[in-house]
Specification:
- The protein is an all-alpha fold.
- 79% of the residues lie in helices and 0% in strands.
- The chain is built from 20 helices and no strands.
- Helix 10 packs across helix 16 and helix 13 runs antiparallel to helix 19.
- The radius of gyration is 22 Å and the shape is globular.
């Protein structure tokens, strides 16, 4: 361990033990997946309380993911320039305020805005917290610290749905929203008391034009995809949003190529293996993360399972994330990380295909193996991706590479949620045929509102509607399985020829405490 050369603290009192800082950042890491998975489980109850159209309900999850992914790199730049403790504390405060606002929201639009605020806070806390850890841990201690953060994130992901199910059943959807807030409050108290302020005196501050164009492009893309099932892909609003996203994307690339200190160093994409890692970073988004949202809606809103049973099923999906990355780290000492990742994606694809064959209302024992295959398969690359992100570029560019990787991973999750949701709605609409109001009914079904969908389809009963949804859901999973297989092949091709030094970096970065 070493004290930070950029620390701005002037107090002569002894520095708090760095493991208190680690505890605060790990608690913040646990709270982030709770903020993501919990509202998905509670979505039917949130809809019953606050109302909202299908598009507005989709923003419950997408608002958080969009603001988180779109501002993650900007938050890191602000932390370096204006103080890591300051940004960490402000981020946690914003999560608390967002949770309070969400619980007190008078309607779904205000609730969605509160979710966006939570995402901004999560980005600030994550970026500043990890940057602060890098100042007080060195070498193997730093590797163990960051491994523990990954384990904490996995613990929140694995337990999020189960905890949300229990809280929602016992205390209501408001308790689900309070759970990440309480974890963030403890992290805030520890961080405020034990974290020393530090900053980078050479930091150039925020790349404002790059940040605005990048976030604007993501926002317009997400808006256009979410609005398309309701307005139609030919709607002027949808076309305008998608064209605007492309234009802002072009502007962002132009800005980043010209500024002296870009938010995103595009020259890293000259390394083919780095491109392969970015493809790998996007794989969990459509092969795993989207299911954390879609399956609770299906299990609770459509199949009528209680939230406790849903939580147990979701634990089968997300639980392997806690243990399989450790296996991946052990395997990385013996086999190339690209091959391990490709095998994991293929296992995940088998699970997706098997899950697609499970009809609505299937017994839990029928769902168990497909869910375990998906979670276990994605756990192999999940345990190696962070190490790969910094191991395939020159050491002096590892920080920027890690920032790009995390941005691609989180932003990709938000985009995947929007695209997969729109795709499922289109597939359900096709299954309903030429029935009047088929599109509107499909939107209600995909957000878990079976009763409203049936009201729009007077000639169809519950069994027929569930059959149509099940066929569409199965087709979607077959497509996702195919995309996952294709990703496995491309990733293996890009990541071949791993050097001994890269293998050591990946294995070291992936080893759990």
């Amino acid at each position: 361990m070493s004290s930070s050369l950029s620390s701005s603290a002037s107090s002569s009192s002894p520095a708090p033990h760095p493991y208190w800082l680690l505890a605060a950042v790990c608690l913040a890491a646990i709270g982030m997946p709770l903020s993501f998975t919990g509202p998905a489980v509670a979505l039917p109850a949130i809809h019953a309380a606050l109302g909202g159209s299908p598009v507005q309900l989709n923003w419950v999850t997408n608002a958080f993911m969009l603001s988180f992914g779109g501002t993650l790199m900007a938050a890191g730049a602000l932390a370096d320039a204006y103080g890591r403790k300051r940004v960490f504390v402000l981020g946690l405060l914003l999560i608390l305020l967002g949770s309070l606002f969400a619980v007190c929201a008078p309607g779904i639009v205000w609730f969605d805005l509160a979710r966006a605020a939570q995402g901004l806070g999560a980005a600030a806390a994550f970026a500043a917290g990890t940057a602060a850890l890098a100042q007080v841990f060195d070498g193997a201690a730093r590797t163990r610290a960051f491994s523990l953060i990954g384990t904490s994130f996995g613990a929140g992901l694995a337990s999020g749905a189960l905890l949300a199910g229990w809280l929602g059943e016992r205390f209501g959807w408001q308790a689900v929203m309070w759970s990440p807030a309480l974890v963030s409050l403890v992290a805030l108290l520890i961080g405020a008391a034990c974290m020393r302020e530090s900053r980078n005196p050479q930091a150039m501050g925020l790349d404002l034009p790059g940040t605005l164009s990048f976030t604007g492009a993501l926002s317009l893309l997400t808006l256009g995809v979410l609005q398309a099932p309701d307005s139609g892909w030919g709607s002027p609003w949808v076309i305008g949003a998608l064209v605007g996203a492309v234009l802002l994307g072009v502007v962002f690339v132009a800005i980043e190529r010209r500024v002296a200190h870009p938010m995103l160093d595009l020259t890293l994409f000259r390394y083919p293996r780095f491109v392969g890692v970015q493809l790998l970073a996007s794989a969990p988004a459509y092969a795993f993360v989207v299911l954390l949202v879609l399956l609770p809606i299906r299990f609770v809103g459509l199949e009528g399972r209680d939230v406790a049973e849903t939580g147990r099923l979701m634990l089968a999906l997300s639980g392997p994330i806690l243990v399989v990355p450790t296996l991946a780290a052990w395997l990385a000492h013996r086999f190339p990380a690209g091959a391990i990742s490709a095998v994991g994606l293929l296992v995940c694809a088998v699970g997706l295909y098997a899950l697609g064959r499970c009809a609505p209302g299937a017994a839990p024992r029928e769902l168990l193996l497909p869910l375990l295959l998906i979670g276990g398969g994605i756990g192999l690359p999940w345990g190696l991706m962070d190490g790969l992100a910094v191991g395939v570029v020159p050491r002096e560019r590892a920080g920027m590479a890690s920032g790009i990787f995390n941005t691609v991973r989180v932003a990709g999750e938000g985009i995947a949620l929007a695209l997969v949701g729109a795709g499922l709605t289109a597939l359900v609409t096709a299954q309903l045929g030429h029935a009047a109001a088929a599109s509107q009914a499909a939107q209600r079904v995909t957000t878990g509102n079976l009763s409203q969908a049936l009201a729009l389809l007077p000639g169809m009963d519950r069994a027929g509607l569930l059959h149509a949804y099940g066929a569409a859901f199965g087709t979607l999973l077959y497509v996702l399985a195919g995309v996952t297989v294709l990703t496995a092949i491309v990733v293996f091709a890009f990541l071949r020829g791993e050097t001994h030094s890269e293998a050591g970096t990946v294995a070291l970065e992936s080893t759990a405490c």
